[in-house]
Amino acid sequence: MIDFDGVLFNWFLLPLMIFLARIMDVSLGTMRIISLSRGWRRLTPLLGFVEVLIWLLAIRQIFNHLNNPICYLAYASGFATGIFTGMTIENRLAIGWRVVRVITRLDASELITSLRASGFGVTATDAVGNTGPVKIVFTVVKRADVQSVIGQVRHFNPKAFYSVEDVRSASEGIFPTNSSLVSRFLVR
What we know:
By secondary structure, the protein is α+β, with helices and mostly antiparallel strands.
């Protein structure tokens, strides 16, 4: 007689658990790398601990069921799905700061006024480019606000050159205040 409980567990439930565990540990790995690059000394080790614990539990099941090729496929599929899931989570969280640099040959006073009215700190300076005088406008914004800033740039000068770069740390500027418990835990 066939043991349906054993068959169901070995060929469906166990691979499903391995698949889900890999999604979790690889997603946590993505978040760990991001937190490491941001210098979040308290969060990074915690994420690493949970990530490796889940990985150990998953790999243990693989070694306990070496004769089950579905577990191998679940492990690899969970890894691939975990990468995608981690990237999606990171994109949705939009953690961190960006510097938006705008170089324009046109008058930038309306853009600067609009950015300041939106609560962004703005620094502007005159410069000379290959084609003559330009205005360079800098603002450091939360990553979630980058599209809003770019929208304003395109509205006031659709042909302006702009670049967006990561900011590891920033101080002594005009920034929205965020004194939440989470932000205090994350920062160094």
